[in-house]
Design goal:
Elements: H1 2-27, H2 33-43, H3 53-60, H4 64-81, H5 84-94
């Protein structure tokens, strides 16, 4: 039984990963390279690790709070500009 639950969980994670990738692919059409880097770094999209707001801020020479503001603005704009798939996903993770 444990193996079946493990397999189901793995499938659910893979499906969710595909949804995230699809949402990002739609969203990146409206992002600058820097904005895309902030989002991919924070959410770990196409990367092996997620970075904190502070780590991303260090990279760009700004505060953690400034990166948070940028991330929030990116998500708000992307939600307005992209397909419903991205909207549903990013509304859910933005809260």
């Amino acid at each position: 039984m444990y193996n079946n639950n493990n397999k189901q969980m793995k499938v659910e994670v893979e499906v969710e990963g595909e949804r995230v990738k699809k949402a990002y692919d739609e969203m990146k059409k409206v992002l600058t390279d820097k904005e895309a880097d902030v989002i991919t770094s924070f959410y770990g999209i196409n990367r092996n690790v997620r970075h904190s707001l502070a780590e991303i801020g260090e990279k760009y020479g700004v505060t953690r709070e400034r990166i948070r503001q940028i991330k929030t603005k990116i998500i708000s704009c992307a939600i307005a500009a992209t397909a419903p798939t991205a909207k549903r996903y990013f509304e859910r993770i933005a809260t």
